[in-house]
Amino acid sequence: MKLHHIPGSRSCRVRWLLEELGIEYELDQKTLGDGSLRSEAYLAKNPNGKVPTLEDEGVVFHESGAIVQYLLERYGEGRLAPAVGTQSRPIFLQWLHWAEATLMPPMGAIMANRFVLKGEDRSEAALSVGRRQFANALRILGEAVDGKQFLVDDAFSAADIMAGYSLSLARGVGELPEEPKSLATWLEGLASRPAYQRSFEGGFG
């Protein structure tokens, strides 16, 4: 199994899960701007020219949420996810996909208008809207983890990995507000896990 990875990127979600599950893997670590994501060989694996990309026994695919779900189904053996058919399963799936579908888009707008776009293409209005939308998503997440260690059933799961990455990114670029305080408490608990620490080796970028 090979994971194509850039420190601090969404591939941290996959690396974190691999570490939690104790799965052996090869790490192909890349660097932003080195051109490797635009090589013909890499684009044949991931036409988006991004990470993560996972290679596993002839299967080559991308998208962090899909990879997380695949790893749980193939290698999880019931770990880090409520069982299919239980009452907790729909809630788990909700948060698993909410992390990318709702929490990350405004963070993407923030990143684009602070770091990614050229100066003349950046928009203060778009940045402001992104921050407002992100704050609303954080309010929802903060209420969900208030007084709890984890998102689902008070047990660590892949839903915590998916959403926890987004908050780690926000904290890393100075976009995690002080309120709600429940988020900082929740994130500190996740960050104390050895698998989290290994997955974020190298910082961001």
Question: What would your notes on this structure say?
Answer:
The protein contains eight helices and four strands; from the N terminus they run βαβαββαααααα. The protein is globular. The longest helix has 29 residues, at 88-116. Helices cover 55% and strands 8% of the residues. Helix 1 links the parallel strand 1 (2-5) and strand 2. It folds into two domains: 2-75, Glutaredoxin (3-Layer(aba) Sandwich), CATH 3.40.30; 88-193, Glutathione S-transferase Yfyf (Class Pi), Chain A, domain 2. It is α+β, with helices and mostly antiparallel strands and 205 residues long.
Radius of gyration: 17 Å
Q: Strands across the major sheet, in which order?
A: 2-1-3-4
And the CATH topology of the largest domain? Glutathione S-transferase Yfyf (Class Pi), Chain A, domain 2
Task: Please tell me the total number of domains.
Answer: 2
The rough form would be described as globular
Q: Can you write the helix and strand succession as a string?
A: EHEHEEHHHHHH
Quick structural summary:
This protein is an alpha+beta fold. The protein has helices spanning 11-21, 40-45, 64-75, 88-116, 124-145, 158-172, 181-191, 194-199; strands at 2-5, 26-29, 53-56, 59-62.
Write the layout of secondary structure elements.
Blueprint: E1 2-5, H1 11-21, E2 26-29, H2 40-45, E3 53-56, E4 59-62, H3 64-75, H4 88-116, H5 124-145, H6 158-172, H7 181-191, H8 194-199
Parallel strand pairs: 1-2
Antiparallel strand pairs: 1-3, 3-4
Which key features would you list for this structure?
205 residues, alpha+beta, Glutaredoxin, Glutathione S-transferase Yfyf (Class Pi), Chain A, domain 2, 2 domains, 4-stranded mixed β-sheet, 8 helices, 4 strands, 55% helix
